[in-house]
Here is the input.
Amino acid sequence: MIDYQILSTGSSGNAVIVNKAVLIDCGVPYRAVEPFIKDLKLILLTHIHGDHFKASTIRKIAAERPLIRFGAPEWLIMPLRDAGVSLKQVLLLKPGFRYSMGICDVIPVPLVHDVPNQGYKIHFPGGKMIYATDTVNMNGITAENFDLYMVEANYGDEEIQQRINDKKASGEYIYEKRVLKTHLSREKCNDWIYRNAGPQSEIIYLHGHREDETDAASDDRGAEGAV
Here is the structure.
């Protein structure tokens, strides 16, 4: 069994704690992470957008826990350094390799977004999980009979097409058209899960689009690069 706590998911911020020791994504204020920080041993980061990579929180964690390790793809090494993290704390994680972290093994998987991005398969002594958000597809990724699936299900195909049509009619800026090219639909998510999950698997849908997030997501991109 894998224990987890979702601190936040969506354009306002993303952070999930697994088995009390692993934080995946860090796009939330430090106060959201602080109650759990004493147990954290590993932080896994995916991409540069501010709702997944909040530099001020990462800087504070690194200062408070100088022995904590940050597992990151190559495109986040310099942003981590610029955030104030010692490169001695940083582990470069590349897709196609399996990394033993002591508390778990980590296998990065490539994801397709509008910036470089990767997800993670994580093997704990008590079970296996996959975490994948901010991706337009799951092509080439398999995770058969895992115990926990945390996968993006951002929008419904019919629902978003209707929103696009409504906004075209009113002459509004169509945020949803970009979402189609950068995020995973519920239908694609379910199709992939159907081909991978077993009868005892637990499925958690992440990063669901909400209409009230649209303006905030568009505004935040200029600061730390949201969505």
In short: Residues 103 and 191 are 31 Å apart (CA to CA).
